[in-house]
Design brief:
The chain has 5 domains: 125 residues, Nucleic acid-binding proteins (OB fold (Dihydrolipoamide Acetyltransferase, E2P)); 124 residues, OB fold (Dihydrolipoamide Acetyltransferase, E2P) (Beta Barrel), CATH 2.40.50.140; 147 residues, Beta Barrel (OB fold (Dihydrolipoamide Acetyltransferase, E2P)); 137 residues, OB fold (Dihydrolipoamide Acetyltransferase, E2P), CATH 2.40.50.140; 144 residues, no CATH class. The protein has 15 helices and 40 strands. Strands 1, 2, 3, 4, 5, 6, 7, 8 and 9 form a 9-stranded mixed β-sheet that branches. The protein starts with 20 loop residues before the first strand and ends in a 15-residue tail after the last strand. It binds one DNA strand of 12 nucleotides through strand 10, strand 11, strand 12, strand 13 and strand 14. One of its GO terms (biological process) is regulation of telomere maintenance via telomerase. It is found in: Chromosome, Telomere; Nucleus. It comes from Zoarces viviparus.
Length: 802
DNA sequence: GTTTAGGGTTAG
């Protein structure tokens, strides 16, 4: 089915020119001129679009040959393709995994990731005007969201980006289907319509000052706008303009999609959406920024998103951000939610008593915690949404009403101090004033803030989860595990936690509430990732985001981009500059020799070699030079000044170790570090450069089993002590990687039966976390447990045990 | 190729 991207057969100019001849992927090498050649393959992996400084991009993809002649090897040949600049941007927008692509105008380089991915010893590099990609897409199924318009026309048949145009709210033609941006001035959370769908209501505005109602009907909750407060910004695609009651309204239509953004200036640019293939470019970000500053100038943003319990007043309506601790049905039209937000209400909170054994979550808490817990009675239509909630969820309840405790409540209310100054809360039936409940994603700023407040609650109010619920059957906590082996059987791990908790079976553990610590005796059934280098991640302690370690192909591309076409550069006054003489090898890309810049201050104290700034070198050269200098900071010229490379590349090389910075949290400025007598290390360099240092961490998912059940658990914060290696060492040396490999092989021998897997004594914590957008789940992590019996170490460290 | 709702407090 023809698309507006450069599809083969979509029209003149879209065809691969006839004079080009195709080369099989398996024959790609460096000794050929590829100017009249093409390579064809299916996109089997499409990396993220990585933005570099000054509006430049890089993207890595893997294509696989589908129709290569049958060969001895069963696997189809595949190759890494690295795209630069506008081509990378267009490719990111126009091409999907599974598309068939033909590349031409490429050069061939050595693949720096070949040792790791074993794909192909060479890669294809596409940059400049000659490079282009022809795309064909397997015909069905048709995509209803096919882009409506194409970007600038170009002679060069490279992929064309689909381009959306956005209508202002004062320029909507009845009957047309439009895309638009707006600031939310009123909203209702999705509620059940009388038809088949959930219905959301929005009212949005923009710089035209028009206010336009918008109704969204979708069956699935996740397809609805994720609007959490007035002032949020939405980007709507494919809404139909209609007139109702002489006013313009918008209604979702086929191919509808929506992104929502925080409306505050300086807020996150991360859009909230369930759409897996949305596109967001520089222009979109600019539009959001413009709407944010306009919103601020108009005073549209509420000063505080919601009212804390500490400020709740009788009879007032307000929105509450809180955590659900427990819930219980009262009758068919009323459910009790027990919630807290870490603040103390100025009025005593009324506790609604319920029947025994109907409470989901603990039925009582420590006295200190009880005094902070509010009773929320939700009625009628909200009973159904309350059914979806789980204890531990973070909620926003809209249009909650504070009721003085003297009011009559269902169930029995605590008698002490009856009637005076006790508060409880009602969520009345209906959706007027946006009344409703929404689960907030765990990563949202508001939830992070809520958690900070809760964590600051004094200790005596904090031990609630260790306060045992008397109604819980005792055997849950005292029965020995139904392990097929006796307690005396050796364990290959050891707990160091010091908790005085009896081991439980996995099925018992699964029935317990989150927030507890458990001891288990289990075997390892399986684990992910199987390719252990993928267990290594980068973690930012500031924004708490985790990311993959960029692979060498991508990093090499960044170095190569940074050193092409060097601009004239003014070096900082404190830097002493010189050149590195290249060793003889001829590079694929002719380039100036790299330049080095030293701190004069360090030179004065004879520490010049301890820190050098290096400009114009390849990744390979930088690694070589890292052997001779303690700290190497790769730099480039941007706008005539010395700056760091894009933060997807390491900002510092120390021997074999590389250090990365957080893109979100760093404010980069190349400065001379202030020196004292101390050793210059990654922390000092990061601080001087305004880089928020990312930490290497290990993250694995283990599937545990015992006689009763299986359980997926994470090994993350406890991973280094579990394996007895540091993640930083794993990133830099093979021995540390082997140690993990051997440990996993010993705990879960390849092809081994359950009988061959050793038993492990582990300490687990259970907690609530968001696993998908808006969906919280109980997760488990291994803590304070150490492998005591790794497999016997073979003399050759690289050979797996078996 | 479009039913549902189309904002504006329950009344416990």
């Amino acid at each position: 089915m023809p698309q507006r991207v450069m599809l083969e057969g979509a029209g003149p100019g879209a065809q691969v020119p006839a004079h080009l001849t195709r080369v099989p992927i398996s024959l790609i090498g460096t000794d050929t001129d590829y100017s009249d050649k093409t390579v064809k393959g299916k996109v089997v992996r499409k990396g993220p679009l990585v933005s570099l400084a000054s509006d430049n991009f890089i993207l890595k993809t893997v294509i696989e040959e589908e129709d290569s002649p049958p060969k001895a090897s069963s696997q189809n040949p595949s190759i890494n393709v690295v795209l630069f600049g506008a081509l990378a941007e267009d490719f990111s927008q126009a091409v999907n995994q599974g598309d068939l692509v033909v590349a031409s105008g490429f050069t061939v380089g050595r693949s720096p990731t070949f040792n790791k991915d074993k794909l192909h010893p060479f890669n294809l590099l596409l940059s400049g005007d000659d490079a282009c990609v022809y795309v064909s897409r397997p015909p069905p199924p048709p995509d209803p969201r096919s882009p409506p318009a194409s970007r600038r026309s170009s002679e060069v048949p490279k992929t064309k980006a689909p381009k959306y145009t956005y209508s202002r709210l004062d320029n909507l033609k009845a009957g047309s289907v439009v895309n638009t941006y707006g600031v939310v001035v009123f909203f209702k959370q999705p509620f059940k319509s009388r038809g088949t769908d959930l219905c959301s209501t929005l009212k949005i505005t923009d710089q035209s000052n028009q206010r336009v109602g918008c109704t969204v009907f979708c069956e699935k909750l996740e397809d609805h706008p994720k609007v959490f407060q007035v002032g949020d910004i939405v980007r709507l695609h494919r809404v139909k303009v209609r007139i109702f009651n002489n006013s313009v309204t918008l209604l979702n239509t086929f191919g509808f999609s929506v992104l929502a953004f925080d409306g505050a200036e300086g807020g996150s640019m991360e859009p909230r959406t369930s759409s897996r293939s949305f596109h967001l470019d520089q222009e979109d970000r600019r539009t959001v920024e413009e709407l944010r500053s306009w919103t601020t100038s108009q005073g549209l943003l509420p000063p505080v998103p919601t009212t804390p319990l500490s400020a709740a007043q009788p009879k007032a309506y307000f929105d509450l951000t809180c955590q659900l601790l427990a819930k219980a049905p009262i009758d068919s039209s009323c459910t009790l939610l027990r919630v807290w937000d870490g603040t103390r209400c100025a009025h005593t909170l009324l506790k609604v008593m319920v029947e025994q054994n109907v409470t989901e979550g603990p039925s009582s808490f420590s006295q200190a915690r009880e005094s902070l817990i509010a009773s929320v009675l939700v009625y009628d239509n909200h009973v159904e949404s309350a059914e979806q909630l789980k204890p531990g969820d973070f909620l926003r309840i809209y249009n909650l009403r504070a009721i003085s405790g003297s009011s009559k409540v269902p169930g029995r209310s605590q008698s002490e101090g009856e009637g005076v100054d006790h508060l409880l809360f009602h969520l009345h039936g209906g959706t007027a004033y946006g009344r409703g409940i929404r689960v907030l994603p765990e990563n949202s700023q508001d939830v992070q803030e809520l958690k900070r407040v809760m964590e600051a609650v004094p200790e005596e109010a904090e031990d609630d989860f260790s306060e045992q619920d008397d109604s819980l059957p005792m055997e849950v906590w005292s029965t020995p595990p139904e392990s097929p082996v006796a307690e005396t059987t050796e364990s290959s791990t050891e707990r160091s936690c010091g908790h005085d908790t009896q081991p439980v079976t996995l099925s018992e553990l699964k029935r317990s509430d989150p927030g507890r610590v458990h001891h288990v005796r289990v075997q390892l059934r399986s684990y992910e990732p199987r390719r252990l280098h993928q267990a290594l991640k980068l973690y930012c302690s500031k924004c708490t985001k985790m990311q993959d370690v960029p692979d060498d192909e991508l990093v090499a591309g960044l170095f190569s981009e940074a050193s092409q076409d060097p601009e004239p550069c003014t070096f900082p006054w404190w830097a002493l500059s010189g050149r590195v003489l290249r060793s003889g090898d001829s590079s694929t890309f002719p380039r100036r020799s790299p330049s080095v810049h030293l701190s004069t201050q360090l030179l004065c104290v004879d520490k010049a070699r301890e820190l050098v700034f290096l400009m114009g070198s390849t990744l390979e050269e930088t690694c070589r030079l890292a052997a001779g200098y303690q700290n190497i900071v790769p730099v480039m010229s941007s706008g005539g000044h010395m700056t760091l490379l894009d933060l997807s590349a390491p900002f510092l090389f120390r021997g074999r170790k590389r250090y990365y910075g957080c893109k979100r949290c760093s404010e980069v400025a190349v400065r001379e570090p202030s020196i004292g007598v101390e050793l210059i290390d990654e922390k000092i360099v990061a601080e001087a450069l305004g880089v928020q240092l990312l930490q290497f961490v290990l993250l694995m998912k283990l599937e545990l089993q015992d006689a009763t059940d299986t359980l997926d658990v994470f090994l993350w914060r406890g991973a280094e002590s579990f394996f007895g290696v540091s993640a930083e060492d794993v990133a830099a040396n093979q021995e540390a990687q082997n140690r993990i490999r051997q440990t996993m092989d010993s705990l879960c021998p390849a092809g081994g039966s359950a009988g061959e897997r050793p038993w492990m004594d582990l300490c687990l914590t259970a907690y609530r976390a968001e696993v998908e957008a808006g969906h919280n789940q109980t997760c488990y992590q291994i803590f304070q447990s150490t492998v005591t019996k790794p497999a016997s170490t073979p003399s050759d460290g690289s050979t797996p045990t078996g």
